[in-house]
Design a protein that fits this description.
Chain A contains 6 helices and 3 strands, in the order H-H-E-H-H-E-E-H-H. The first copy, chain A, is mainly alpha-helical and 150 residues long. Chain B binds a DNA duplex (24 and 24 nucleotides) through residues 1, 39, 41, 57-59, 67-71, 73-75, 77, 92-97.
Chain lengths: 150, 150
DNA sequence: CGCATATCAGATGAACTGAAATAT
DNA sequence: CATATTTCAGTTTATCTGATATGC
């Protein structure tokens, strides 16, 4: 039995399309990152930290990824045990631990970069160049709408 | 400590934006569907079946959601045990079981509909109406690029 | 005291690997 | 025989709930 396409009775919701696209992206990304021993979730956390200067607390990372602080805490500990991140007490608040990339973490991230870029290219392959910037703005628009709603 | 925004040193990749948006959507959807005893993943499968006439096999659903056939099989059995779907042998192939919504499954799906529509509205709240159709086409474009690449 | 952060412990669910049976 | 679907069994990982300690 072969796979056909969905019926066009009612057009699928935008949130459904987002979910389908993310499923596809994650499938590719998981495969690309497996040789590096990273899940997509871990990779995303590392890139967030890599984009930051001063580091982020586990609780901040949790909010950003919509998971419980306990869940993120476990992941942070795992990344720290592997030497990919290090954590230091925030100067003004000794309770808070700020996580930053170690040189090894940065190195691993850089090693993943070409594969991730390859996926980015594949995703945008058939999209007109003039449409890409607007696509990104639309995604950011949606993120902002949902993030500020809670 | 307050949450700031990401540094603008290098612009985030499109695949990263997709992931962030999907995280936000899933977070809202999980919350909205919890009272109905459905996960986002189960809800998605039900909507796919609801859009179909003749039903889909577990293996087809698995490919569509990028999970192993075993994983989807378990979910299909759970939905069948709850009476939300029913499965019949495909006429031409007695090995294949085609799943379709039961009236109860359709009813549950309809009950979820308003909450899902509410999320759709929230997502698109601040997006110019003229931009929405293009946004959907871009998402579909990306899905097609990645799906046909395997 | 109220609140946020970090963390431990136990329970639960989701997905995986491996293998086997059935049908075309 | 080769391939696809379904399914069982066992394992691993992830995430959750609940509770506790610490610092502001």
């Amino acid at each position: 039995m072969t796979d056909g396409q969905a019926q066009a009775g009612t057009p699928p919701l935008t949130i459904y399309l987002i979910k389908q696209l993310e499923l596809a992206v994650r499938s590719f990304l998981d495969e690309a990152l497996r040789p590096f021993g990273l899940t997509t979730f871990q990779y995303t956390a590392l890139t967030v930290l890599g984009r930051r200067e001063g580091g982020l607390s586990s609780a901040q990372l949790a909010r950003r990824s919509f998971v419980r602080p306990q869940t993120m805490n476990e992941m942070v500990h795992a990344l720290e045990a592997r030497g990919l991140i290090e954590r230091v007490h925030e100067p003004g608040n000794r309770r808070v631990m700020l996580a930053t990339l170690t040189p090894g973490g940065r190195e691993l991230l850089d090693a993943c970069e070409p594969h991730v870029q390859e996926l980015e290219r594949l995703l945008l392959r058939d999209m007109p160049a003039g449409q890409r910037a607007l696509f990104r703005r639309s995604l950011e628009n949606g993120i902002a709408s949902l993030t500020h709603a809670r």
